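Two component transcriptional regulator, LytTR family (Flavobacterium terrae), 250 aa
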Amino acid sequence: MKAVIIDDENKARKLILALLKDEYSDSIITYEAEDLVSGCKLIKEEKPDIVFLDIEMPNHSGLQIAEFLESNELNFQLIFITAYNEYAVQAFKLSAVDYLLKPIDILEFKSAVEKAKHNIEKGNITNKLDELKKVFNQLSLNKMVLEVPKGVLFVSHDDIIAFEADGMYTKVFMQDNTTQLICKPLKHFVEQLESKSIFYKPHRSYLINLRYMKELSKKDGYHIVMENNKTIPVAKEKKDEFLELIQSMF
């Protein structure tokens, strides 16, 4: 098998190389690149089975790999190397893209490689173009516009706890305990954030940020208690879907 390591940090590349040599010296041929462009050139030339790809690199994020390869060239097992926060890791989990957190844990590294080898041996190499685009969209631009009476607020998705319909207006509950009343219906925000896996609509009147869930109550039907102690109902027709979502995340 062939493996390509793409990371701008020489120390990180050498660590992955050493781990591969220790465990798989007889079965894996390795190649290195210090940036995404040269890494994609290697991928085109060597057609690797596994690619280890750092996210935070100068000039181009590793998440942009789909911009440099044709869809039929994304036919390898991809393992992202990331120092991103928990929110970003949730996005990876939801999109089924493999990842390792820095600093790299040896046991997790072995597990990821064995999983990749198993998929290769079983022929389970799937095109990850859609998954890659989904993750990139989630992480590359993490802000939205809220039009308020005094002007416009540019708000990070991370700072929004929930949206609540209020007629043709929408209440936006913020992480700093403030509430913004926006002159747009909830539908506007649902459509704007439908590609963001971290947001979910458990009820026709609410859109929530899943990272701010604190408790799931079963009293008088299902209710979600958010970190600001606001209680959000889960519609009966959404209960099974919501429970499946929670099980896939945690």
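The CA atoms of residues 77 and 115 lie 9 Å apart. The longest strand covers residues 160-166. ok done for today
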